[in-house]
Amino acid sequence: MTPASDRPAAPPVVGDPVRPRPGGAPCILVADDDRAIRTVIDKALARSGFEVRLFGTVRALMQAVETGAGDVAVLDVVMPDGNGLDILETLAQRRPDLPVVVISAQNTLATAVKATERGAFDYLAKPFDINDVTAVIGRALEQGGGPVAGGPGGGDELPLLGRSSAMQALYRAMARLMATDLTVLITGESGTGKELVAQALHDLGKRQAGPFVPVNLAAIPKDLIESDLFGHEKGAFTGAVQRAQGRFAQAEGGTLFLDEIGDMPLDAQTRLLRVLQQGEYTRVGGAERCRTDVRVVAATNRDLTRLIRDGGFREDLFYRLNVVPLRVPPLRDRLEDIEELAGHFLARAVDDGLPRKRLDDGAVAALKRHRWPGNVRELENLMRRLAALYPQDVLGADVVAEELAEASPAVGTAETRDAEAMGLGDTVRTHLARYFASHGDGLPPPGLYARVLAEVEAPLIELALGATRGNQLRAAEILGLNRNTLRKKIRALDLSATDHRDG
Ligand SMILES: Nc1ncnc2c1ncn2[C@@H]1O[C@H](COP(=O)(O)OP(=O)(O)OP(=O)(O)O)[C@@H](O)[C@H]1O
């Protein structure tokens, strides 16, 4: 052990020759081209009782490593004589016993993935909390060398943007999962990017050559979910005129993404649990056992533990799915990502033929003040509207504020309510507030309650029918109405003449 007081005041020589370990304290090799960072790490590690050796070049580090020095290495990515990521594989070959912690200011998912693929023990984004560095070194010493995961490489073009520390935690967790087949449960509010995370797990993982099959369970009528997932035999139910393959069969060799898993009916949950446990299923109405080789990634924006309490979700399925939980942070917890995301969506709007726009500093500040109940999707939609609606090339805080007020009024309790329902509720509230305000100091005429409900009912049903192209069964499902009740309402509201298929 080397007490801090015994150490020289000036940082030790970069690439200093091998010294014997005093008292057998673990020796940490730190390679970073930034002297200030070397010094910070040196002090913290020395305080924790480690022997530290510092290097300013890849070459110096490699020389020390070749002599067998070091119990853990901390390695920066951008070094004056090379890229830290490029030497990871060589390091792993020469010194499989040496865990390497990569630190980088290039805080992208690509860096996290490459670091992990190439055998890094872990990855920390700069600026890091020095306590995290000591903690990860402690873990590395406990667990020893060897990669956390290894697998096929991915390209640089990754869809997930964001360099905030909240996203770094997610990237690290994802990077560890890339080469595994473990079932993953992705949680997070609506619009946070859960599907994108699932897609990235597939695209960068070992099943990348297989299909990625996304299924939105909330969009399928509940009584069709089992046949949709597992397929059915001819005659299994009315309308089953021939045998059909399900999504599990489509996803063979790849990834099945079960979005909105909280909406899965209990019977289908039982079947899914069996597949996850036994790796086989039967088609609806059939007895033949079908083997399946599919990685299941599920997602939900609902609180599954509450659903379990209420009897709506099987606890055993939850534990089976939740082998590795990934939480996608809400946008309000990563405000530092907003500028990059907004720029990305404005650029994408140009690809779609909309005029090129940029945001000034005031606009970015206004975006950062918003609570984002609809998360990244809300930001994406806002950028498209700004690109489409405003003539000026540079957009300021005024237009951002105007559009935000128009589309999604300020929300104070985003954490406690379902984001989707909240967006809807607030829109209704805004319109009602406008209606009250339109009477000035006076009051609206009596009978408002019934009138508002009557006003809402017809467009709600029309929109549901439009969205489902006139499919009353699906519309009833969305609305949460019995199909006969919906039929009666369509008649009573005289909606029958509408051509719902075009809706
Ligand atoms: N980190 C990100 N970088 C770039 N685009 C993102 C990011 N996160 C989300 N998006 C974009 O935001 C939109 C919403 O993302 P996505 O559909 O993955 O969210 P979700 O959490 O699955 O939503 P829901 O719960 O409603 O299904 C998509 O257009 C997606 O491309």
TrEMBL record:
Gene Ontology biological process terms, A to Z: regulation of DNA-templated transcription; regulation of nitrogen utilization
Residues the record lists as 4-aspartylphosphate modifications: D76
Transcription keyword on record: yes
Coiled coil: none
Start and end residues of each stretch annotated as Disordered: 1-21
Domain called Response regulatory: residue spans: 27-141
One annotated Gene Ontology cellular component of this protein: cytoplasm
GO function terms (MF aspect): ATP binding; phosphorelay response regulator activity; sequence-specific DNA binding
Keywords from the UniProt entry: Activator, ATP-binding, Cytoplasm, DNA-binding, Nitrogen fixation, Nucleotide-binding, Phosphoprotein, Repressor, Transcription, Transcription regulation, Two-component regulatory system
Pfam families: AAA_lid_14, HTH_8, Response_reg, Sigma54_activat
SMART domains the UniProt entry points to: AAA, REC
Compartment(s): Cytoplasm
Domain Sigma-54 factor interaction: 160-388
Main localisation: cytoplasm
Record's function text: Member of the two-component regulatory system NtrB/NtrC, which controls expression of the nitrogen-regulated (ntr) genes in response to nitrogen limitation. Phosphorylated NtrC binds directly to DNA and stimulates the formation of open promoter-sigma54-RNA polymerase complexes.
NCBIfam families, sorted: ntrC
Protein name: DNA-binding transcriptional regulator NtrC
